[in-house]
Write a structure and sequence with these properties.
Shape: globular
Strand content: 15-25%
Helix content: 40-55%
CATH superfamily: NAD(P)-binding Rossmann-like Domain
CATH architecture: 3-Layer(aba) Sandwich
Radius of gyration: 21 Å
CATH class: Alpha Beta
Number of strands: 15
Number of helices: 11
Oligomer: single chain
Number of domains: 1
Distance between the termini: 29 Å
Largest sheet: 7 strands, parallel
CATH topology: Rossmann fold
Length: 330
Amino acid sequence: MDILISGGSGFLGSAFSDEIIKRYRTQAKEVHITWLTRDSSQAHPDNITMMTYDELEKTERSFEVIVNLAGTGIADSRWSDERKKHLLASRVKPTESLLAFIARRSIKPKLLVSGSAIGWYGTQGEQPLTESSTFKTDFSHRLCDEWEQLALKATEHGVPVAIVRTGVVIHPDGGMLGKLLTPFKFGLGGQLGDGKQIMSWISRDDWVGAVIFIIEQHLAKKANAQQDSDSTANDTIMNDTIAKTAKDAPATVYNLTAPNSVTNYTFTKEVGAWLHRPTFFTLPSPVLKLMFGEMSTLLIDGQKVIPQALLNAGYQFKYPTLKEALENQS
């Protein structure tokens, strides 16, 4: 399997690359990973091929799967007007490049997995949110929705799309947990606001496992559908009729969150217990708003997001509870 990844060197892309290579080699299956980059001199593992966006415009290579993860971290700094423009551009430009590649190639990818976030739903408190839920409009929603709508244009070229709306990813190598380790280790960890806000999280192992599951499930269905199509085509030829082929391909949304969300209070206590450190401190909501401005909504306002599509598809979570996820980190 040939997989092209934008954002491959990031917190999620690198873990996905490592795991699928290890898993497929254990199963004696071939897999080849290519990372898209703007810097041809970027350091990378020996088993990864690099390709610049300029090279993508000219290449005649085909990829079975494209995984689109490129995008600047939404919580890395305050949301000034310029920052908001940058956050959007960092997602839109790579996606546009991938769409141009898809449109140009005669042999299309079998699947585009495109990143998004549970911010698509907006802040809705304790309301359970599945993939069929509606949204509340705020900056997070607009950012995610514009990214998603652009990626969905791949279906116009006959390429199925899987949108993965990711929650807070738990792993000490990065993300929210990585940023919190230092203050927690110094005994400065504590709840944010009143601590009642819901946090929808997923272990990085399960995020990687879920994306591999989505890819393999889709490719298996596509292979079965192709067999049925070949059979139908043979019948069509025998009957001297012309089969009509739909141009648009299917699109599916998946919430990549664990099935057991927690309050910020519970998250704080679990992390403190895992590190064997006290968690006496509290950062009140007004202080968070003063420190982070509009971006403080990511810390103060909760979302209870349910991974209904994954559960319905039969995905088995490796770490369904936060305690399990923390205790199994290295």
